[in-house]
Design a protein that fits this description.
Length: 366
């Protein structure tokens, strides 16, 4: 009962003191979700066309035919080289290059054929997933900021107002206090997440003219850095993909919140805790990009170890949903997604342990 009462009190405290933050973020999210409408009004002076039928098969068939035509063209070029120049060592390198291009084009054709056979559109163009991408990949960064801000203020705010000593004097375990603080922040942020997800998915389906079929399948790449081929393709039920994306989003938010909570325990003032937290969230990826660029220039290889830092794994769902970009440096796809979830979960556990140990050592006089 003590834990439940603490959670209720903390939730009320968060809503009472930070209602303006939730209102501002919600207004911004509504603008972002409705950005296509505003853009159409500004450009054309009228609303966009709603109720367009979601159609992917025609485009996929065209892509398959293009890939097959490329295969035939390359095969004809190879045959002509052999006919005119012979099949000796003088043309071995060129023929090897053509063979690689033929293999790649054939893999593309097989991938499109598999999607058509399994009636599985690319996940990033399916209406329901499109709305989820908007939330988990683009808007998700706002949730990371909001959750981290609130978590950073949780313990440091009590220390700033000299009320932490009063809390610790009560017969409450410090682990219970930390858990109640974390739960109150999580409930407030996740409520905003669910509302935004519903709005984004509903809008996207309205624009697509389809309510979507949660029983359908979608196609996801295992690794966007590898060639787009049938062997690199995973066919998943749409409901499973959305559950995975939601789980990844929660893992990322938990990592950001745990980091901010640990900083809150160590920082002596609320402003310092928030400043350090936001500095890590914004500055960490910039610093990692700079290090990666320097090491890439120096050694010619990307620094993959940077992908295992906590601030690079606040948005695991974006790695799963941002799929068909075929970017060797994107570190996206189903395999990097599960890796990112594992990394975020590991860092979350470490931050919780560090925060709890330091909270137990605090000796506040009030």
């Amino acid at each position: 009962m003590t834990y439940i009462r603490l959670c209720r009190n903390e939730i009320v405290k968060v809503l009472r003191h930070r209602w303006w933050l939730f209102l501002a973020v919600f207004a911004l999210l509504v603008l972002m979700v409705n950005a296509p409408i505003l853009q159409s009004l500004a450009r054309d002076g009228k609303l966009p066309r709603f109720g367009q039928k979601f159609e992917w098969r025609a485009a996929t068939v065209a892509q398959q035919k293009t890939a097959e035509a490329t295969v035939r063209q390359l095969q004809a070029s190879r045959a002509q080289v052999v006919k005119q120049l012979g099949g000796g060592s003088s043309t071995a390198g060129y023929r090897r290059q053509l063979d690689q291009q033929i293999s790649l084009a054939q893999e593309h054709a097989d991938m499109y054929r598999l999607m058509l056979q399994r009636d599985s559109p690319p996940a990033d163009i399916e209406p329901i997933v499109a709305g989820s991408i908007l939330v988990f990949s683009l808007i998700g960064f706002l949730f990371v900021i909001v959750l981290s801000w609130l978590a950073a203020e949780s313990i440091a705010g009590e220390r700033s107002s000299r009320t932490l000593g009063l809390l610790l004097m009560r017969p409450i375990r410090r682990g219970t206090l930390l858990a109640a603080k974390a739960t109150s922040v999580a409930v407030a942020a996740l409520t905003l997440l669910v509302v935004t997800l519903v709005l984004a998915v509903a809008y996207t389906q309205l624009y697509a003219g389809s309510l979507g079929d949660f029983g359908s399948n979608v196609a996801v790449l295992r690794d966007s850095g590898a060639a787009a081929s049938a062997s690199n393709l995973v066919i998943l039920p749409l409901a499973v993909l959305l559950l995975l994306a939601l789980g990844g989003a929660l893992a990322g938010l938990a990592c950001a919140g745990a980091m901010a909570m640990a900083i809150s325990v160590f920082a002596g003032r609320s402003g310092a805790a928030v400043g350090i937290t936001l500095g890590v969230i914004f500055g960490g990826p910039i610093l990692a990009s700079g290090i990666n660029a320097f090491l890439s220039l120096a050694s010619g290889k990307a620094a993959d170890w940077l992908n295992y830092l906590w601030f690079e794994n606040f948005l695991p769902a974006g790695k799963l949903l941002a799929i068909f970009n075929n970017d060797p440096n994107a570190f996206t796809g189903s395999t990097p997604f599960f890796r990112s979830v594992g990394v975020a979960s590991g860092w979350t556990a470490l931050f919780i342990v560090f925060g709890y140990i330091h909270l137990r050592r605090l000796q506040e006089a009030g």
